[in-house]
Amino acid sequence: MAQFVKGLFWGAAIGGLIGLLNAPRKGSQTRENFKAFIDQTTDDVNDVRYKVDNLSLAVQKLASEGSQSFKEASDGVRMSLKHFNEEAEPRIRRVKDQTEVLTEHLKEAQASFQESKE
User: pTM surpassing 0.85?
Assistant: First the structure.
């Protein structure tokens, strides 16, 4: 981007100079016009540079905030999952224990049914 601003400045300066040198005016008037042209071009280049710098800062800030927001969201999800696991673990263990007890009862009932059948 710096090359663009540099090229813009030099292109405008050289084009303005050529235009002023070919103009049919008095030397003093040409010098005044040239000084006004240089001042205006300098102001324009400085304005473009200021806007480019602001744009660059805005992009950096957005990237930083986006990465920070992603990190915060990721940390939030991770903490929620950890909390869920901590809360659900006792329930899961009880269900597993009850399933084992039920399986044992079913095996005993099946064995008892088989014995009564014989």
Answer: no
